[in-house]
Design a protein that fits this description.
The chain is 49% helix and 11% strand. It is an alpha/beta fold. It folds into two domains: 12-181, Rossmann fold (3-Layer(aba) Sandwich), CATH 3.40.50; 186-383, Up-down Bundle (Dehydroquinate synthase-like, alpha domain). It has a six-stranded parallel beta sheet with strand order 1-9-6-4-2-3, with helices on both faces. The protein has a three-stranded mixed beta sheet with strand order 5-8-7. Strand 2, helix 2 (50-58) and strand 3 form a beta-alpha-beta unit. Helix 3 (75-88) packs across helix 4 and helix 10 packs across helix 11 (317-334).
Length: 386
């Protein structure tokens, strides 16, 4: 694992029940009198976000709303949001919603100040000028988008999925209010929670992992292991919601610091080809990829096992490492994640094409702790059909 590292990113983070009501004061720190509000369409008129919106009015801040957002957004949606922001002369962007909404808000922030369409910036560090400051309020505990430098989009016309990646994408601030996640349905809670676990585990086993990313990843794994089941079982369990939101945030930090691996590379084709939500794809694939990667770093798998679950302390390293994979599989099953790609109606004859496409997601493939080839990715995909 890497020994040298540098960190950058989020400038402010507010955490706690009721913290959404601080949105107006946070924007006041930026001197923003008019903001672009990128809002999950399912939240329009919701009481859940009323404290945040009321805080804008109290701070005398005008907002223009963009909410024409699909489940896995197209680049054109970011262009449309940015065009609205330019037209209205906004000084900041606020994203309220799940990962797709927050990604779109981050992209809109840089597209307001940089020329050209969203597709010009897909890749790494292609955005040259700083964007408008962005404040993110997640309503799911899973993506960690409020703390990452990535905005992912899907082009359905050519079955492409990729992101704008780079330091200009980091939000200015994140407001983490567990009350915003209470209305999240059980299944969405499950897939976003397993998505967060994927971020933490892939960051911990990444070839670029380092001391700080390890601290964040292990803390996230522990929080998710303790709180995901009760959050899925009863959405109004505020202790569980708070634990999951903090776990998701720490997993996002670990992701931003160390990167992810083959789970993410393999999930991209499922989204691009079959419009499967990113969190659902990650959640399903995680146990299969962990099983493949196990031999590469037994000690790290053992560390993850003890963070995730209560295990006897006299297990050998190999026994604890193997237990990690089984504990993840059990957790996934208990919270209702599909165990087979057949359940998501993915045709098995698409495996070669998916493996080929996954190999083009170069950075996660390079980060994976065990080397992979297209042939080996095919084997993992086929195991996920059993």
């Amino acid at each position: 694992m890497a020994n040298n590292f540098a960190t950058e990113g989020l400038k402010r983070m507010v955490f706690g029940q009721g913290s959404a009501a601080q949105l107006g004061s946070e924007l006041g720190l930026l001197g923003a009198g008019k903001v672009l509000l990128v809002l999950d369409p399912n939240l329009a008129g919701s009481e859940t976000i009323k404290p945040a919106l009321d805080s804008l009015a109290a701070a005398d801040i005008d907002s223009v709303v963009y909410s024409d957002i699909t489940r896995e957004p197209e680049p054109a949606e970011a262009d449309a949001a940015a065009a609205l922001g330019k037209e209205k002369g906004v000084q900041a962007v606020v994203g309220i919603g799940g990962g797709s909404t927050l990604d779109l808000a981050k992209a809109a922030g840089v597209l307001v100040t940089n020329p050209g369409p969203c597709t010009d910036y897909v890749g790494l560090d292609k955005v040259s000028e700083p964007g408008l400051p962005v404040i993110c309020l997640p309503t799911t505990a899973g993506t960690g988008s409020e703390v990452t430098f990535t905005a992912v989009f899907t082009r359905r016309s050519d079955q492409f999925k990729g992101g704008i990646n780079g330091r200009q994408l980091y939000p200015f601030a994140a407001i983490l209010d567990p009350l915003l996640t209470v209305s999240c349905p059980a299944y969405i809670t499950a897939i976003t929670g397993m998505d967060a676990l994927t971020h933490a585990m892939e960051a911990f086993t990444s070839r670029r992992a380092h001391a700080l990313s390890d601290l964040n990843a292990l803390a996230a794994i522990e929080l998710i292991g303790r709180h995901l089941r009760p959050a899925v079982a009863h959405g109004e369990n505020l202790e569980a919601r708070e634990g999951m939101l903090l776990g998701s945030h720490l997993a996002g930090l670990a992701l931003a610091q160390a990167g992810v691996g083959a789970v993410h590379a393999m999930a991209y084709p499922l989204g691009a080809f079959y419009d499967i939500p990113h969190g659902e794809a990650n959640a399903l694939l995680l146990p299969y990829v962990l099983r493949y990667n196990l031999m590469a770093c037994l000690e790290r798998f053992a560390d993850m096992a003890y963070a995730l679950a209560e295990l006897p302390d006299d297990l050998s390293t190999a026994e604890a490492a193997a237990a990690c994979v089984e504990e993840v599989a059990d957790l996934s099953l208990e919270v209702g994640i599909p165990t087979s790609l057949r359940q998501l109606k993915v045709p098995e004859d698409s495996v070669p094409a998916m493996a080929e496409k996954a190999m083009t997601v170069a950075v996660p493939i390079a980060n994976n702790p065990r080397q992979v080839t297209a042939a080996e990715l095919e084997i993992i995909y086929r195991e996920a059909f059993i």
